[in-house]
Amino acid sequence: MAAPDRFDPWDPAFVADPYPAYAGLRERGRVHYYEPSDQWLVPHHADVSALLRDRRLGRTYRHRFTHEEFGRTAPPPEQEPFHTLNDHGMLDLEPPDHTRIRRLVTKAFTPRTVERLRPYVRDLAGRLVGDLVEAGGGDLLRDVAEPLPVAVIAEMLGIPESDRAPLRPWSADICGMYELNPSEETARRAVRASVEFSDYLRTLIAARRADPGDDLVSGLIAAHDEDDDRLTEQEMISTCVLLLNAGHEATVNSTVNGWWALFRHPDQLAALRADHTLVPGAVEELMRYDTPLQLFERWVLDEIEIDGTVIPRGAELALLFGSANHDPAVFADPGRLDLTRRDNPHISFSAGIHYCVGAPLARIELAASMTALLERAPSLRLAKEPERTPNFVIRGLTGLAVEVG
Question: Which residues contact 78 (CB under 8 A, 6 or more apart)?
Fold first, then answer.
């Protein structure tokens, strides 16, 4: 078993509570080479924030180098469906393609579009919590945290309710590839999900081309700019998958991580129950306190130096969001959950050109489910101790059993 202050993303004890290990990393320096994943770990908030904006780094290197030129090996051919899907989404692209795609997506993903969803989100959260209360409790993950953002993104995309059942399993299988050193079985599941999800969206896009609706897929088809740029079909498919995956993975895990933290801090939960105006700040603090995405990677496109350590071109940085969000240089008493924290520049939504385009919608969803639970389930309590998922990068629980009444 790993020591409490040792970084070991495959050790269950570390996954259960990585924050002491992060403190050790911060104390020992600003950058550390980690051989098991062949990455440089960056644990400080100032460095993570700056490097997210540093154009000498990239989510990809293929816009400038071949695999061979960059000193990397091409992915196995059998993984091609996953990489085709992943590599055409704006999260894993750099300018100029990223700039073009994000500009076109933003035309369809407007603040007005998001704001128009607020009543739907509020109503759905109320109905899901109402069902939980009527049943006397249940699994907060399965009954509220998961169905809410999946339904919202599906509603935005125009995916019929009858087609939504595979969305979360597809997403979970694809996101397995974002863990460190994924297994061959994880890759097989991701490839299968990539093929099935892409085939489904290809059919949906064809239907919307023939009969446009008031939905995001129709908006993406119609989106263009003054140069008449348009999204290719593959870019549309990849964008839809990215919006679904990023649009609910973080929200699901923020919800259950957040309520698990509240149950462990009854004074903060009592304060929240007494004053629902704390909800917006609570959403931010809970995302900081137990960060749903613990690590974000960047390739070094041009040699950089961090605190006297030269990081060569071709290396990979692991920007530790969870550590940055607990950096005492930025957050006073970072290990304390404080729902009234005023200065809270957490980076749970990333920063720079890859800042989460869905952050406003995520905040609406998180606030809606929290408010519904506070209003309709004021006696909500933990039924049994939850278990962590074995994943490190995407941090969550296998479930959260609760009781009401």
Answer: 187, 191
CATH assignment, 12-403: 1.10.630.10
How far is residue 260 from each of residues 20, 109, 152, 242, 371, measured CA to CA in Å? 19, 32, 23, 27, 16
Phi, psi of 403 (to 5 degrees): -125, 150
Using DSSP's 3-state secondary structure scheme, residue 158 falls into coil
d(CA 92, CA 357): 14
Rounded to the nearest integer, the mean pLDDT of the chain is 94
Backbone angles phi, psi at 130, to 5 degrees: -60, -45
Whole-angstrom distance, CA of residue 262 vs CA of residue 25: 27
Residues paired with residue 359 on neighbouring β-strands, in sequence order = none
Residue 31 neighbours by CB distance under 10 Å: 21
Cα–Cα dist 12/1, whole Å: 8
What single letter denotes the amino acid at residue 352?
G
pLDDT higher than 70, residue 227: no
Residues in a beta bridge with 299:
58, 316
SS (H, E, C) 338-392: CCCCCCCCCCCCCCHHHCCCCHHHHHHHHHHHHHHHHHHCCCCEECCCCCECCCC
Least confident residue range of 193-202, 305-314, 353-362: 353-362
The CA distance from 376 to 389, in Å, is 28
Report the C-alpha gap between 189 and 211 in whole angstroms: 33
Contact 44, 347 (CB under 8 A): no
Strand pairing class (137-139; 57-58): unpaired
Where helices occur in 265-332 by DSSP H, the ranges are 266-274, 279-289, 321-324
CA gap 279, 369 in Å, rounded: 10
Q: Tell me the domain boundaries of the chain.
A: 12-403
d(CA 351, CA 330): 16
pTM: 0.94
Burial label for 7, CB within 10 Å (0-12, 13-18, 19+), is buried
